[in-house]
Amino acid sequence: MSSLALKVHDVCVNYGEVKALEGASLELQAGRICGLVGMNGSGKSTLFKSIMGLVKPDRGTVAIHGYSPTQARKKGIIGYVPQSEDVDWDFPISVRDVVMMGRYGHMGPLRRPKAADRQAVDDAMERTELTEFASRQIGQLSGGQKKRAFVARGIAQNATMLLLDEPFAGVDKRSEATMTRLLRELAASGATILVSTHDLHALPKLADEAVLLMRKVLAHGTPESVLTPANLALAFGLDVLDRESAS
Ligand SMILES: Nc1ncnc2c1ncn2[C@@H]1O[C@H](COP(=O)(O)OP(=O)(O)OP(=O)(O)O)[C@@H](O)[C@H]1O
């Protein structure tokens, strides 16, 4: 039986004069991987931030398993892999400590890790192939490893909803394959995954469904049904797949 993991209803977000989202609505069932595509500035990051509760919509509602973003974050059911630009990579924190942040919701107010927390962190780092980098400062990782550190944080957290903002940007093919496999495993164990990407060719392999965004949801369905030339022309203004294969 399917269950509704995410419901975004009629969300509008303005940054001053800029209308970043204008009536975006989206529903995702649990255990699905959904690829979010749209041109630069189409509102993908703003949608993630609205779901995380980092941006407050001027209108509309967001529910994650029936909870508001604030409740969902408190309950630790939502994990976020931000765009690289949104992270201070100079912050003096080790990979292990970043992953341990995923356990904060499971600890008391003093945030003293127990054996179960350490075990969850070890397991998450192993699954993301980061064990050997545990004591490295977070900024000393490659692009793909940095992304995986944030996924590991979500795994340690036991997040049932994972939001990934361009996890494949600046990442080599091997890291991309590792990440795709990981996301598939997480979805198979029941997690719901919303992932933004500019790689339209890789989308059918990665995702069960796709969403085309241009301040609102233009199309949502299987990748094949969404990535049609007509839809892409609407969202990007030209024949993107043809242009990419020509270059
Ligand atoms: N903090 C902000 N203040 C003002 N305008 C903003 C802010 N953040 C985003 N915007 C604007 O809102 C619009 C949507 O931005 P957003 O970052 O959500 O798009 P995006 O689809 O994630 O883009 P990209 O693919 O380039 O990452 C853009 O026009 C952007 O310039």
From TrEMBL:
Report the PROSITE patterns cross-referenced here: ABC_TRANSPORTER_1 (PS00211), ABC_TRANSPORTER_2 (PS50893)
Q: What positions belong to coiled-coil segments?
A: none
Query: What residues does the ABC transporter domain cover?
Result: 6-240
Which keywords does UniProt give here? ATP-binding, Nucleotide-binding, Transport
For whether the record's keyword set contains ATP-binding, the answer is yes
Single GO MF annotation: ATP binding
Recorded hits in PANTHER family, A to Z, give:
IRON TRANSPORT SYSTEM ATP-BINDING PROTEIN HI_0361-RELATED, METAL TRANSPORT SYSTEM ATP-BINDING PROTEIN TM_0124-RELATED
Identify its protein family: Belongs to the ABC transporter superfamily.
Tell me the protein's name: Metal ABC transporter ATP-binding protein
User: Organism source for this protein?
Assistant: Paeniglutamicibacter antarcticus
